[in-house]
Amino acid sequence: MKKTLTILLLATLQATATAAGSTVTFSNGEEGWYGLQPMDGNGGSAIDPSLGNGAPALRTQMENFGVAWSTRSNTDFVRDYTQMGSVTFGIDVSAQSVYFFNREVTRDLVLELRDYDNMTNGLPYTSVWVKVGTLDASKPGWQQLSVTIDDTSATTLPAGWGGYGAEDSTGMPYLPSDRTFASVLAGVDEVAFTTYVPGMVFGYTYFDVAVDNISISAVPEPEQGVMLLTGLAGIAALARRRRR
Predict the structure, then answer these.
(1) Is 230 exposed, middle or buried (0-12, 13-18, 19+ CB in 10 A)?
(2) CATH of the domain at 207
(3) N or C: which end of the chain has fewer CB within 10 A?
(4) Domain limits at 156?
(5) 244 near 24, Cβ under 8 Å?
(6) How many structural domains does the chain have?
(7) Mean pLDDT of each 10-residue bin along the chain, 244 residues long
(8) Pairing state of beta strands 205-218 and 21-24?
(9) Is residue 155 included in any domain, yes or no?
(10) Each residue's pLDDT tens digit, 23-49
(11) Cα 105 to Cα 95: distance, rounded to the nearest angstrom
């Protein structure tokens, strides 16, 4: 009975681990995530212990054409996503100010998954990207934003997604013909949440924006959910029999 219980417990833990993910709360430092530049006398990014959504936050205060928060070293995020099946990316954002020409404005925030190893057409990387939300200082407090990739093996771009790695005659970016959505996901070297929307140009803007709880989580496959429920039911049944 003990051996059976152990097998069921291991199967349950394996299913749970597969469905688990990772969240950067900035309580343990930046964990590989960074803003455009460290904080100095001209602004930049730094951890603010007083502003987080339940924890410290990574806050960016600077004048620039755009802002970004990205990682190239956190291996929970920089990876081959085709091994995950489905995946959800999340981030909490708090816009204190997005100021342009003496007035508050909004800026789109996109998630961009970049592959630097297979660049073509003289551009620095190939990527796929999608809008996850809007930075809007008129909405106080924290916004919880997320996007899910339902099928990481898809060859075509899902609805709402764009590509980068080649440009048409007007300078608008697109995914090169020799790349697919899945081939980019298979070699992600950088994950970025950014206001630099590919193909768009913005004026010099003052940003005061914080981010927190940057997360990645695998979406359990149906059979994993069945395994988890079966394992838990088996453990409960064996425990009842043992008490008897």
Answers:
(1) middle
(2) 2.60.120.260
(3) C
(4) 21-219
(5) no
(6) 1
(7) 44 44 94 90 90 88 97 98 97 97 97 89 92 96 97 97 94 94 97 96 95 93 49 50 52
(8) antiparallel
(9) yes
(10) 999 999 999 999 988 888 779 999 999
(11) 11
For the record, the structure tokens of 59 come out as: 């806050």
Q: From CA 112, how far away is CA 129, in angstroms rounded?
A: 4
Q: Please, where are the H alpha helices in 101-154?
A: none
Instruction: Indicate whether 143 belongs to any domain.
Output: yes
Q: Residue 24 has what pLDDT?
A: 97
Find residue 190's DSSP bridge partners: 114
Please name which of 158, 161, 45 lies closest in space to residue 112, comparing C-alpha atoms.
161
Asked whether residue 163 is domain-assigned, the answer is yes
**CA gap 235, 230 in Å, rounded:** 9
Torsion-angle region of 233 (φ positive above 0: left; ψ -120 to 50: alpha; else: beta): alpha
pLDDT (0 to 100) of residue 11: 43
Q: What is the pLDDT of residues 129-141, one digit of tens each?
A: 999 999 999 998 9
Place of tokens 């630099």: 196
Distance CA 26, CA 54 (A): 10
Phi, psi of 34 (to 5 degrees): -155, 160
The closest of 214, 241, 237 to 30, measured between CA atoms, is: 214
Q: What is the pLDDT of residue 222?
A: 53
The pLDDT mean for the chain works out to: 86
Identity of the residue numbered 54? G
Identify whether 230 is part of a domain: no
